[in-house]
Amino acid sequence: MADLNGVLKFSLGVDQLSFEMDGQHIQLDRGLSYIQSNSMRHGLLDELAIESMIYVIEELLESAQMKYAQPKIAMTSDVLFQRVLALFFPDQQQLDRVKLESAFNTFVERREYYVSKVADNGLSSLIYFIVLREMMHHWNVVEIQLE
């Protein structure tokens, strides 16, 4: 496996996405609410909304111009990351690509169940989860840890 020198620190907020790696700070003034409003029609998180969300997230991540080649470990202290861990990965403080992809597939298959599980807190944690998946794919993130 390649050297894991890269540590990506990130925060995914309602109004902005923030990333820091190798002393470089990238802030996108479009956050989870932007992703939601540009992906979901009539407030429904259906299959089409998920596909649209992936496209919107890909566009945002590509605009940050993060280098793919270097494998990265990502760290965050976001409350929404803690909610994602509790929802999909109970009793864990980190996740890798295999765990995340397996959980994503389960999420897609049981989407209505997960939407009902987060109903009280809104869909932010599910949108956050989809952003995590796309970060792993597009930026070569091999593991995400709670800071």
Short description:
The chain has one domain (6-146): 2-Layer Sandwich (Nucleotidyltransferase, domain 5). It contains 6 helices and 6 strands, in the order E-E-E-H-H-E-H-E-H-H-H-E. The chain has helices at residues 32-37, 47-63, 79-88, 97-109, 111-117, 124-139; strands at 6-12, 17-21, 24-28, 72-76, 94-96, 141-146.
Descriptive account of the structure:
This protein is α/β, with parallel strands linked by helices and 147 residues long. The protein has one domain (6-146): Nucleotidyltransferase, domain 5 (2-Layer Sandwich), CATH 3.30.420. The protein has six helices and six strands. The protein has a six-stranded mixed β-sheet. Helix 2 crosses helix 6 (124-139), helix 3 crosses helix 6 (124-139) and helix 4 (97-109) packs across helix 6. The radius of gyration is 14 Å and the shape is globular. The model has no long low-confidence stretch (mean pLDDT 92).
